[in-house]
Amino acid sequence: MALDKELKTLGKKQYHIHLKPGDIGKYVLLPGDPARSDRVAKYLDNAEFVAENREHRTFTGYYKGVKISVTSTGMGCPSATIAAEELMNIGAECLIRIGSSAALQDDIKIGDLMISTGSMKNEGTSRFYVPDCFPSVPDFDLTREIIDTAREMQPQLSGKVHYGINASDDAFYGETEEWIQKLSGLGCLNVEMESSALYTVCHRRKKRAAMISAVSGNLVTGDVIYENVNEGLVKGWDEEIKIVLEAIYRFEQKLQAETI
């Protein structure tokens, strides 16, 4: 019989992320950049560096008593789903992508925050899990908690909060002007490179997934910053982390109340 990778690795030290059961909380934040794991760790109490291998850098700590981890995924759906699969193998229940995204509508500015309610699958990884026609959507309850928390925190934010459908592309430099206009014309709010496959694999394994991202630039208006420090984006990273951590705390409180 052929090898069942999930069964072979379930509950053991994981090959790529170098983590084992007990190393992480059931809530895991997923930035792409390993350096952003360190940024998240600054907002956690008693944060401890757990492991680093390849593009996967992990810290685990607490926010208001809730055990939370952060593991970087690297860029793109293949790397992100490997990290997600292995995190779920050792106890992750809710995986939330945080990071950067490019806007596709005129009114969205650098530093604004985008909360995904669904993702257009312009990538190949999902095809290994589901047919192309199968939708890619985040967990409703977790996403609603993030939206509600972001709305409440809006007066404290430097930019606006948007929510809607995004696109997940495979080729950063393959996005032509015609392709960008097509995505914009379809009403996609933003484009990034991981969420559609993350939603797909979490759905298949009956786990929760969501995404909030800070706007790095606008591909329709041409407002992009590639060479200098993007101060608006950096501020957006910090704001999305604050929103997600508070949303996780509130979500966990509701889950606990349901079990009483």
From TrEMBL:
Name assigned to this protein: Uridine phosphorylase
Alphabetized PROSITE patterns for the sequence: PNP_UDP_1
Gene Ontology cellular-component terms listed: cytosol
One of the GO BP terms on file: nucleoside catabolic process
Keywords tagged on the record: Glycosyltransferase, Transferase
Source taxon at top rank: Bacteria
Gene source species: Mediterraneibacter faecis
Enzyme class, UniProt record, top EC level: transferase
Family note: Belongs to the PNP/UDP phosphorylase family.
GO MF entries: uridine phosphorylase activity
Domain Nucleoside phosphorylase residues, every copy: 26-221
One Pfam family recorded for the sequence: PNP_UDP_1
EC number(s) from the headed UniProt entry: 2.4.2.3
Catalytic reactions of this protein: uridine + phosphate = alpha-D-ribose 1-phosphate + uracil
